[in-house]
Amino acid sequence: MRTKFENGLIFLLNFVFITLLISSLSCSLQGKKNKDDDSSSNNNNNNNNLKKAYIYSLDKSKFRVGDQIVITGYNFGPVQGSSYVKFNTTRVIQYPLWSDLKIKVIVPVNSFSGKTKVVTPTSDSNMVDFRVLYPPIITDFFPKTARLVYDTVTVTGRNFGTDPSDIAGEIKLLDVDISSIHITEWNDSTVGFIVPVITPTGLRKIYISTSEGTDSTSSKIKIIKGPVIDSITPNPVFLGDYISITGTDFIDPHSDTEYVTIAGNVVESFVWNDNEIRINITDNLTSGDVIVHTYIANSPPVYLTIKKLITGWQAENITQLGDISDSTSFVSVCYDSSNDKIHLSYTNVNSEDTYIYYSNNGSGNWNIETVDKGFVPSMTLDNSGNPDIIYYTKENTLKFARNIGSGWETAIIDKSGGDKKLLRPSTDSIMDSQGINHIIYNINDKNSDQRIKYARIDSSGGLVRGPGSISRNNEFRYSQLAITLKNDDLPFAASTVKYDTSKLSKANLIKFFETTSVSSWEETEMKRPEGFDSLASYGGISLKTDDEGVVHVAYVDGSTMPNIQNPSIVNGGITYLTYSPLSKTLKELPKAYSSDKFFDSWGNHLFLTFKAKNTFIIFTVPESPYYPGVKYALYSIEFNTPDKYWYDPKNIRNGLDSPNFGFINDKLNRPHIFFYDSGHLKHIMYYDTIIVK
After folding, report:
1. Is 197 exposed, middle or buried (0-12, 13-18, 19+ CB in 10 A)?
2. Residue 133: what pLDDT?
3. pTM score > 0.85 for this model?
């Protein structure tokens, strides 16, 4: 039998059990309920997603304000209700149709290109791009007055279009189309154009049309026909010359209201008509814009460059020299146009002996080298620009020296013995296209053997055999020699000849020597011009062959050295000839220089060269017995008239120590002269300095 305590404990345990069971059942039921509630919520969400508005398309992607647009899609709702359509931030007000699948709207004012969407109480649709089109609107233009052809008009506004496909219209001046060649600029806010020449003058409206419409200016532009400069010749122009301004509408006759300015300065005109104005370019003018001013308008400016030409001779000392004598006062010069280098050879007394020196200005300075003992150099350049020098020695030897890079290599060309002497001042040489030196010189034994000799030296320095002697005749004592090459690379030579054997120091005849095979020589004699006592016996003859194969000859006509205390005055000068080897024709041209100054048969020197189409002669003339001066003369053959003539000779330099000098023209036709003066070997160059004012 249970006690009272035990019965109470059993009751308590049963109560706890029943309580826990009820609680568990309650939780289970609540969990099921929650699960059912979640399922219901998901179903609601799925229903809402199925009703979200979606835009398939717009019936037009580009439209204007006020156009009707059809929007197709779904879930727009059967009625509009509180739903609406937006273009960017602008809400549509007018809806001719609203259905669940289609909406018709009127594009509202202030719509701008961007994105559109449908907004419903449950959702916003996707967004679709659109573009609003606007017709062009002109707000202004400038200038208000424009000249035909030359002025550019700028039109400002909006909606002109930036996409080329939108510029489907055009711009007009009333009824005149502005073609694409006249349009200078086109963007959405600016259009620029040049007024076409066909535009009538007067007031004209500007029209701009695009695919979206047309607009015109509220005011009119004034079109005028002002002066126009087509050209200025010459340009550039030198001070002292004149210019011709050509163009249109300069107004003829003109008054004080029509004038020309250059760089702002009013200038005088000596010709003025409707199409041309001529102006003298005076010293006070400078470079700048040329403008024709008229009462109608001013021409567009055209820039004129004004230059000033400064000319003159500049001199430099090359080296200090020793004693100067007839034997040492010879200079030979060559020019290499490929590198603008001048090569110079000369003689100088050093330690009581006479040496051949060489220098060039390739480094910018005259670096001097000693070649060999000797005097009276004659220099040529081979095809590589290397110098070859032919010279005499005290041993009556004719020698050859070549620069081999590491020094000078020498060889003997000819050597005489006994009483025979090589006449030192008569050396002359020239190089042909094959690099072969052609040499002419003379030999003299005072009485019986007086010959002109010829030799060739090939590019390796060895002798090439040709006829040893051109002539055997005592006429050639103290003769002056010159040599050139004909177009066939064969030599052509000339020599002064003693015509009166009783006057040993005079030479009053010239003979020419030419060959067709370098195996025999033909001799042509030219008698001295009438009225002249003699020809200078050395330094007084020069030959040059022109592009047509004609040989040009210049030589000094003169007399023997007069008594210094009582100098005799004779009519001397420089004779100029041409000789055609093809026709054997000798032609005497106008005299290059005539003077009542005496010409010393031992003391005159000249060079002949070509300058463009002209002949250029530079020579010494004895301005005083001991101190000659250098002059040059120019023979013009540029004019198509029979009156071809020499310009008056110009002084280059006075008072030289020696009449013998070296001369070359560079590739710019600037003459360079090398001479002995005041104990120095000097170089002077004629320069043209052009400055722009």
Report:
1. exposed
2. 80
3. no
